[in-house]
Amino acid sequence: MDFSIQLDKVCKSFGGHRVVNDMSIRIPEGSIYGFLGPNGAGKTTTIRIIMGILYPDSGSVSVLGVANPELVKDKLGYLPEEKGLYKKMKTLELISYFGQLKGMPKQAARHRASALLEEFGLAASAQEKCDTLSKGMGQKVQILATLIHDPELVVLDEPFSGLDPINVELVRQVILDLKQKGKTVIFSTHVMEQAEQICDYVLLVNHGRKLLDGTVAEVRQSNLQTISVEYTGNPEAFKLEGVTRVNDMGNRAEISIAANVDPQGILKTLLSRLNIRSFSIKEPTLHEVFVRTVKESEA
Predict the structure, then answer these.
(1) Separation between Cα atoms, residue 172 and residue 165, nearest integer Å
(2) Domain parsing of the chain, residue ranges
(3) Is the dihedral of CA 246, 247, 248, 253 positive or negative?
(4) Could you tell me the pLDDT band of residue 19, with boundaries at 50, 70 and 90?
(5) What angle do CA 179, 184, 189 make, to 5 degrees?
(6) Cα–Cα distance, 162 to 159 (Å, whole number)
(7) What pLDDT, on the 0 to 100 scale, is given for residue 299?
(8) Can you tell me the distance from the alpha carbon of 89 to that of 139, in angstroms, rounded to the nearest whole number?
(9) pLDDT in tens, 23-48
(10) Which superfamily does 3-219 belong to?
């Protein structure tokens, strides 16, 4: 397997505080790779190291086969978390300007910017100033500015933040289309459902450390079982040995149990305490894995 990104034992500190701690990851070429973790977990710092904006204090980094991301910067596309537009620039002008920053000739950048605006339904806004755009339209324009030079590696830091459902779906489709074109996409998110639907691989970090990584299926199957129960009765009945977490929604509950606990034994006990209408065993969602793993790391 070929890798677009390789980090080995990467560490980064600010003012004596370790923000990235012994981070080692492999990101396969042509994959969608999700960075997951709470605020302050170290996701953005790790992304900035990959982009060459920050340098690690120790450890090694390889991006598109080279140790210094600066050498391949024209092959990288980056949408930072702190998004912003040059407000007085026109939409077409701004997108083509970012293409020129990545080495495109002026006319080629302008032609490509026009084509992208047409493709994404923004052709009518080509001559509008950026400060007149809605938040969703502004997000689209920033994504187009990220993609104009046809980068091999696309890094999107919190691309779904603050978007309405229509624009969330648009960003989701952009990411999937990039994968179809053979691009490698890294994005960070707090939206577990989006990560679960579109990621090939995910990384879960907290306090700068890698807690889990692998395919979505591998992470979900890690060491947790989830039971879904429809019931009537007192939810105190779920306080059983081996039950690690209960998400009670009134007449339905999702119960997380340790890997060595027999679900049938749980069912037998609950039947003696509650009126059970349905009982099913299912893989945990990425959200459940996220919550459990972060809590365990802070215990």
Answers:
(1) 10
(2) 3-219, 222-282
(3) negative
(4) very high
(5) 90
(6) 9
(7) 64
(8) 15
(9) 999 999 999 999 998 888 899 999 99
(10) P-loop containing nucleotide triphosphate hydrolases (3.40.50.300)
